[in-house]
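Please check these two lines:
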Amino acid sequence: MFLCLISSYAFSQNFAVGGYVKNSYSLGEYSNYSICDLGVAAYGNYLLPFNMPLDMKLGLSVLAEYAHVFPKTDSVISNLEDVSFAMGILYFLPFNIASQLFKAQIQVDYGVVLHCMNVIESVSLSSLYVDQLIDFALGLRWSIPKLENLDILLFPTFRICPETEGNLLLQAGFKVGAVYTFSAKSSSTVQTSESE
């Protein structure tokens, strides 16, 4: 009975897990060193059990991301890999278009990015350093018909990385992926199976 109550509570508080691929382009001073990056990520979100108007949802997000950065041909950087970890908040509003369910989502994440870098021999730079990151995303989630717990993600994104020297690394791009949401419907299934 105790295990049933724990499972019921965990599943009734909607959470989702999934992943995405990302492509971002360097802006500002950062574009002097790199062109763009290409990466993958594991992603999760937890919806807070608040009653809000118009079925709006407020939640928490977490992500772990890897990206390969493509440096410019004349850059002092010969190779750069980024590993990012972040947590944040999200807010989405469901709506329907021609019987298709969509969710407009706003998300802000804060975390750290670990830069693993190789430079040309004549330049003295650290090969490993850490920056803060702030990610902004505004996009859509589309619930696949007959698979309403599976969402396709499409998010334009903007990233700011404040450096200790006072510089800002800026990137703009997009994410495409999918997440599976464990909803309150799963709770009743667990309770039924336990009672049997």
